C-alpha cells in the first residue's frame, strides 16, 4: 500500500461510505435473487465502480494512492517470465553483463519480490507502510541482493532499473511512470493502465488468465 496521509492501513477502508456500499450490495443481491437467482452483473459492476470511485475520492483528499492488495499467486510467474525476458534482452542488446535490477513500488509484504530475487534479479522493494515493509524485510532476509526501502513511490527514483512491476491504481501507476521517465526499462502494470495512457507500447495490452497486463517503456 502506498499512502500520502498518516492514516493507519487498517482504517483506510473505513473512509469509504460503508452504509451506501452496503445498501447497494443488498439491493443488487435482492434484485438478482428475484429476477435471476444469481448476482446481476450490471449491479455488481455498479458496486465495483462505487468502490473504485470511493478510493479515487480518498486520493483526492490525500488518502491512499493505492490500497495494498497482494498479487494472486497464479499470475506471478507469467509476469516475472515476461519481465525476465524483457530485462535480459534489453541488457544483452546494450552489451551489459550486470545483474538486472527488479523494482517493485508498493511491494507490500514482498511476495512477488521474493520470487523475483529467486530468478536472479537484484531486487528493490519499495513500501511506504512500515508494517508491510517490516514483513517484506523478514520474508526477504535470506534472499541475496535484496533491499527493502521505506519510501514514497511519488518521489523515490532508483539510480537504475531494468524491470518494474506494479499492481497499483491508475494514478499511482502514472506517478511511477513520471518519476522513472527516461530509464528506458519496461514496466508491467497488472489490471490497471496509467491515468495518461499515451506512453503505452504498441500491442502492449496482454491477456493472461483473464487478467490484463499493460506494458510501458520508461
What does this molecule look like?
The protein has 218 residues and is an alpha/beta fold. It has seven helices and nine strands. It has a seven-stranded mixed β-sheet, sandwiched between helices. Strands 1-2 form a two-stranded antiparallel ribbon. InterPro entries: Methyltransf_11, SAM-dependent_MTases_sf.
Percent range of helical residues:
40-55%
Number of strands: 9
Strand content: 15-25%
What's the CATH topology name of the largest domain? Rossmann fold
CATH architect. name of the largest domain: 3-Layer(aba) Sandwich
- Please describe the biggest sheet, giving its number of strands, its sense, and whether it closes into a barrel: 7 strands, mixed
* End-to-end C-alpha gap: 22 Å
Give the strand line-up of the largest sheet.
5-4-3-6-7-9-8
Order of helices and strands: EHHHEHEHEHEEHEEE
How many domain regions?
2
- The average pLDDT score comes to 75
CATH superfamily caption of the largest domain: Vaccinia Virus protein VP39
Please tell me what the overall shape is.
Answer: globular
Cα-based radius of gyration, to the nearest Å = 19 Å
* Poorly predicted runs: 1-39, 57-63
| Main CATH class of the largest domain | Alpha Beta
Task: Briefly note the structural class of the backbone.
Answer: alpha/beta
Number of helices, counting only DSSP H or I runs of 4 residues or more: 7
